[in-house]
Design a protein that fits this description.
Strand order of the largest sheet: 4-3-2-1-9-8-5
CATH topology of the largest domain: PH-domain like
Largest sheet: 7 strands, antiparallel
Strand content: 25-35%
CATH superfamily of the largest domain: Pleckstrin-homology domain (PH domain)/Phosphotyrosine-binding domain (PTB)
């Protein structure tokens, strides 16, 4: 009977639970929201500043009216462009830093990059320098060989652009075909 007595005494107490300090809680939530907004704003300003620093990059070429028949086509993701050989030095000028879906088409005229929701561009065959498989670009890291990286010249700058096909088995064919086109163009130019 004595073990029931403490329970009865607790139930008899008329003390209520401590009331939440709503002013402090709201203050913390507002402060956290302002901090997140500040970080977002700083990131956006950094992105715009990088674009300003890269403003000397010429406008991206548009696809010709008659590019010719497609040698290869691929749908997948565009992961960004960087300065060639520097996989973290993202290029944001002219929308090259925007990740998006992509439709790639390779013709005798060059590489047509169509990006829904972002700026399309065209890489003339004379501007193509190399194609390879890699594992990372612009801060995006994938499995070894999971990324098709195309190096091309634009103005006086060499650019690496990274693409990932919806069907990764296509990557090897793209590398072989692009490098054959590049070698053929260099051989014809040397004559």
């Amino acid at each position: 009977m004595t073990s029931v007595a403490p329970v009865i005494l607790l139930a008899a107490e008329k003390e209520s639970a401590e009331v939440t300090d709503w002013a402090a809680r709201v203050g913390w939530v507002v402060g956290l929201g302002l901090f997140v907004a500040l970080v977002y704003w700083l990131m956006r300003e950094g992105w715009k500043w990088r674009g300003t620093l890269q403003s000397d990059l010429p406008e991206l070429p548009a696809a010709p009216d008659e590019p010719g028949p497609a040698k290869l086509s691929m749908s997948g993701r565009y992961h960004g462009s960087t300065t060639a050989g520097q996989w973290l030095d993202r290029i944001v000028a002219h929308g090259l830093g925007t990740r998006s879906r992509v439709e790639l088409t390779l013709t005798d005229a060059g590489l047509d990059v169509v990006r829904p929701g972002a700026a399309d561009f065209f890489v003339p065959v004379a501007a193509l320098r190399e194609a390879r498989l890699d594992k990372g670009i612009a801060g995006k890291v994938l499995t070894e060989g999971g990324l098709l990286v195309v190096t091309w010249a634009h103005g006086d700058k060499l650019i690496d652009s990274g693409f990932r096909s919806d069907h990764a088995a296509e990557h090897n064919e793209w590398v072989d075909t692009l490098n054959d086109m590049i070698n053929k163009t260099e051989t014809e130019g040397a004559r």
